[in-house]
Write a structure and sequence with these properties.
four-stranded antiparallel sheet, disordered N terminus, eight-stranded mixed sheet
C-alpha cells in the first residue's frame, strides 16, 4: 500500500471516528468530567456600593484563593457541642481546650480530601495546607484560575479608596464533581469586602466644665476626648498590672494599615501608657494608618503589660487572617478585629459558614475573638430602603461563634458615668444564623419586655441570633484621642470599642493564668451567665439616625443595641475568680 493511499485512509478513518464521538457526546453516551457550580447563591453585579468591575485581569497576574474543605453536618454539630461544653462554666469540661495538633486530629479533613484538592491544583499553583488540615491556600496566575474554576477574572476597583483593587471572578465558578465533594467554597474568589472606615472628627471640642481627667495633657485638643485615663476610671480596671507569663493579645490589620513607631511613642509619653508592638506578622511599613493606630494605641492603653501581636494581611481578606492564626502553634489568646460587612453583601452562605467553622476551631483552642458590630446601626452598609424597610445584620458581627462589640456614648457629655446607646451601634438579629442555646433566655426576655418597643416584624428576623453581646464607648459625643502622623485626632466607632473590650478580657485572662487556670477562650456562654458584671445601658436606640422606629431600643438586661452593656472590670474580676 503506497503512502498516499494510507494517508488518505487514515484521514477518512479519523474523521469517521471523531464524527461518531461527537454524536455520542451530544447523546450523552460518552462520560465527561462533571462540574458543580459553587456558591450558587452568589451574585456578580458589575458594581456594588463599594466596588466597580473594571477590565479583564491580566492573565499573568497572581492571586491567592483558599479552598475551604468541607465538614459533614454531623461533624459540625459535634464541633459546636464541643465548643459550647469547653466554654460553659457550668460544664465539667470547661476550659479543657485542644492543642492545634489535637484539633487537626479530631476535626481535620481526611488525607484523601487533601490529596484530591492538591491533585486538582497540581502544578498550576503553589499550595499551603494549614496545620489544622482544613484550609488549602493556593497562589496561582489569573490564567490558571480561569482554567481551573471555569470562570472569568476581573479587576475590581474601590469607589472611594484610590489604588485599592482586587482580582475577583465576574461570573459563576465551578469545580470538578470529585473536588466539589470535599470543598465548601473557594474563598476570596468571589467575595468583595467592605473596607473599614473609622469616624474621624476634629479633636478640638469646645471646653466643658467637668471632672474629666486630663489623661494626655501634652496633646492639644484632647482635653475633652476619651483617653486611657477616662477608660480606666469608667471601666474600673487598674491603669497598670503585673505581666503574667503566657498571656497575649492581638489586633488584625488589613491592606495598607500600618503603624508608625513614632506615633506609638508620642501617644505613650503623652498619655502615660506603654504602647509597644511585640511582634508583627505579615510585615509593616512606617506609614500611619488610622485604623491600625487606633487599635494598637487603645488595646495597649488598657493592657500595656500584655504582649501585643499585630497580624497584618496584605489583602482585605478575613480568610488570610484566619489562616495565619491556624498556622500558629501558640496564637495570641485574645483577638480584636474591626472588620465586617452586611450578611447580604457576603458572597454566599457557604462563605459565612466556612468562616464560622474557623471561629469554632479558634474557640476550641482557647482563643477569644471579638469583632466590631458595625457603625451603621440596624441598616448596615446597604441602608434600610426608602419604602419597604429592611434591616441588614452584620457579618461576622452576627456570627454565633464570636463576641460582637457595640458602641455607647456617655449619657452626659464629658461626664464619666452612665452610658447610652450610640445610634450607630450595629445590632439586631441575624438573617442567616439561629438563636444559640446560651442566648435563648436573654433574647426571649428582651422581646417580651414592653420597653423594647420592637420595630415592625417585617424589617427583621425574629428567629435569628441577636447581637451585639457587649458594648463599650465608641460614639461621637466624646470621641477617642488618637495620635496619627504626629498629631492628635478624634476617632469614633465600634472600631474603638472593640480593642478596649478585648484589652479588658486579655487582662482577665492574666488573672486566670496566674491562678494556673485555662484562658477564657470563647467568651459568650460565660458572658451570658454573668450579665450583671456589665454596666447596663437602658436608654437610646441604634437607628443609625434620629428616627427611633428604625432601631432596637436599649432596655434593662440584654438588648439588641448594646448587648449586656460595657464591662465592669471589678465585677468581672470577681466572677472570673469563681470559675473553675
Amino acid at each position: 500500500i503506497n503512502a498516499e493511499y494510507m494517508g488518505h485512509f487514515l484521514s477518512v478513518y479519523f474523521f469517521f471516528v471523531m464524527k461518531c464521538f461527537l454524536l455520542l457526546l451530544v447523546a450523552g453516551l460518552v462520560p465527561v468530567a462533571s462540574r458543580v457550580i459553587m456558591e450558587a447563591d452568589a451574585s456578580f453585579p458589575p458594581s456594588t456600593a463599594h466596588w466597580v468591575r473594571g477590565p479583564r485581569a491580566n492573565p499573568a497576574d497572581q492571586l491567592t484563593v483558599f479552598a475551604m474543605l468541607r465538614h459533614s453536618p454531623q461533624t459540625l454539630k459535634e464541633m459546636e457541642a464541643h465548643l459550647f461544653a469547653v466554654s460553659d462554666p457550668q460544664s465539667s469540661t470547661y476550659g479543657k481546650h485542644l492543642t492545634r495538633d489535637e484539633l487537626a486530629s479530631k476535626y481535620g479533613a481526611s488525607k484523601e480530601a487533601i490529596a484530591t484538592v492538591s491533585a486538582f491544583f497540581g502544578s498550576s499553583a503553589q499550595i499551603e495546607v494549614t496545620p489544622t488540615r482544613d484550609i488549602i491556600a493556593a497562589n496561582l496566575t489569573v490564567a490558571a484560575a480561569e482554567a481551573l474554576f471555569a470562570t472569568t477574572i476581573y479587576k475590581y476597583e474601590h469607589v472611594s479608596r484610590s489604588g485599592v483593587a482586587l482580582l475577583r471572578a465576574g461570573a459563576p465558578y465551578s469545580l470538578p464533581e470529585e473536588v466539589a465533594a470535599v470543598v465548601r467554597v473557594i474563598g476570596d474568589l468571589v467575595n468583595l469586602p467592605a473596607l473599614r472606615k473609622p469616624i474621624i472628627q476634629d479633636a478640638s471640642l469646645e471646653q466643658v466644665v467637668s471632672t474629666w481627667p486630663e489623661g494626655c495633657p501634652s496633646l492639644s485638643h484632647c482635653s475633652q476626648l476619651v483617653t486611657p485615663a477616662v477608660l480606666s476610671q469608667a471601666y474600673k480596671y487598674p491603669a497598670s498590672a503585673p505581666s503574667v507569663a503566657g498571656n497575649s493579645m492581638s489586633v488584625a490589620e488589613f491592606q495598607g494599615q500600618y503603624y508608625k513607631e513614632s506615633d506609638l511613642k508620642l501617644f505613650s509619653s503623652s498619655c502615660h501608657v506603654n504602647v509597644t508592638v511585640d511582634k508583627t506578622v505579615g510585615g509593616d511599613q512606617p506609614i500611619a494608618g488610622v485604623e491600625s493606630e487606633l487599635d494598637i494605641e487603645y488595646i495597649k492603653a488598657v493592657s500595656g503589660e500584655i504582649p501585643l501581636t499585630v497580624i497584618y494581611a496584605s489583602r482585605y481578606s478575613l480568610l488570610d487572617w484566619i489562616k495565619e492564626i491556624a498556622n500558629m502553634a501558640n496564637p495570641p489568646l485574645v483577638h480584636s478585629v474591626s472588620y465586617g460587612n452586611d450578611e447580604a453583601q457576603q458572597s454566599s452562605v457557604g462563605y459565612m459558614e466556612s468562616c464560622n467553622t474557623q471561629f469554632m476551631k479558634a474557640g476550641l483552642r482557647g482563643l477569644s475573638i471579638l469583632f466590631a458590630s458595625g457603625d451603621q446601626g440596624v441598616c448596615g452598609r446597604e441602608g434600610c430602603g426608602f419604602i419597604t424597610k429592611k434591616f441588614h445584620p452584620d457579618f461576622p458581627g452576627a456570627s454565633p461563634y464570636i463576641t460582637a462589640v457595640g458602641g455607647t456614648n456617655f449619657l452626659h457629655r464629658s461626664v464619666i458615668g452612665e452610658e447610652t446607646t450610640w445610634t450607630g451601634s450595629g445590632g439586631g438579629f441575624s438573617d442567616t444564623f439561629g438563636i444559640p442555646s446560651w442566648q435563648a433566655k436573654a433574647v426571649a426576655a428582651y422581646k417580651a419586655n414592653p420597653d423594647a418597643d420592637l420595630p415592625e416584624q417585617s424589617a427583621w428576623n425574629n428567629t435569628g441570633r441577636g447581637y451585639p453581646d457587649i458594648a463599650a464607648l465608641g460614639g461621637q459625643t466624646n470621641s477617642y484621642c488618637v495620635v496619627i502622623n504626629g498629631r492628635a485626632a478624634g476617632v469614633a466607632g465600634t472600631s474603638a470599642a472593640t480593642p478596649v473590650a478585648a484589652g479588658i478580657f486579655a487582662k482577665l485572662n492574666g488573672l486566670r493564668l496566674k491562678a494556673k487556670k485555662s484562658p477564657l477562650g470563647y467568651l459568650n456562654p460565660m458572658i451570658y451567665q454573668n450579665g450583671n458584671c456589665f454596666n447596663d445601658v437602658t436608654t437610646g436606640v441604634n437607628s443609625g439616625s434620629s428616627y427611633s422606629k428604625l432601631g432596637f431600643h436599649a432596655v434593662k438586661g440584654w438588648d439588641a443595641a448594646t448587648g449586656w452593656g460595657s464591662p465592669d472590670y471589678e465585677k468581672l474580676k470577681q466572677a472570673i475568680a469563681s470559675l473553675p
